[in-house]
Amino acid sequence: LADELDLNCLWAKTLEEDMARRDFTINAMALKPKSASKILTRSYLQNIEIIDLFDGQNDLKNKLIRAVGNPEERFNEDALRIMRAIRFSAELNFGIEAETEKALTKKKGLLEMISKERIRDELVKMLSSEHPDKGLESLVNQINKLYLDGKESTQEYKDLVNSMSAYIIAKSSH
Asked: Is the separation of the CB atoms in 63 and 92 below 8 Å?
């Protein structure tokens, strides 16, 4: 924690609007100092209120990634959130809530609109996490839904899955 955090860095007119536009409930919480100060320092940590309009604390407790509000709307706003859900799941060893995962699958085609660099950055973060195997497993499941969709797998697809599996096995053995 930095010595001071500026609480005036909102992207919306109100705190509630700002939290409602966040990607996941675990990222949609705020700290409110009980004093009149606009700056939160370490000494104020005992005197704060957690503002949690979307039950993020409960999702943290239950180790769950859940979109704020309508998951399809969140992914429509920024499709990279699909990759972020998978990465957070891997980094934190959390599950993905059923409606969020359903929307993730339904909206996966939106990733084609995201730059390769942004996707690469999410993959690097995922592979650098404590549980890259979980992220890769989730990614393989999404690739299955995206590319196979009830069809026979191609050799190229099988090679991709085998490469990912080899990485998972190598990473797990360390």
From this structure: yes
Concatenated DSSP letters of 128-172 = TSS-HHHHHHHHHHHHIIIIITTSPPPHHHHHHHHHHHHHHHHHH
Q: What is the three-class DSSP state of 103? A: helix
Instruction: Enumerate residues 6+ apart whose C-beta is below 8 A from 30.
Output: 15, 18, 19, 50, 51
Residues 114, 82 contacting (CB under 8 angstroms): no
Residue 47 has pLDDT above 50, yes or no: yes
What's the token pair of residue 162? 């085998």
Which 8-state DSSP code applies to residue 173?
A: T
Between strands 39-41 and 4-6, the pairing is antiparallel
User: What would the pLDDT profile of 62-76 be if each residue is shown by its tens digit?
Assistant: 999 999 999 999 999
In this predicted model, what pLDDT tens digit does every residue of 79-99 receive, in sequence order?
999 989 988 888 888 999 999
Question: What is the secondary structure of 24-78 as a DSSP string?
Answer: BGGGS-EEEESSS-SEEEGGGGGGEEEE-TT-HHHHHHTTEE-BSS-HHHHHHH-
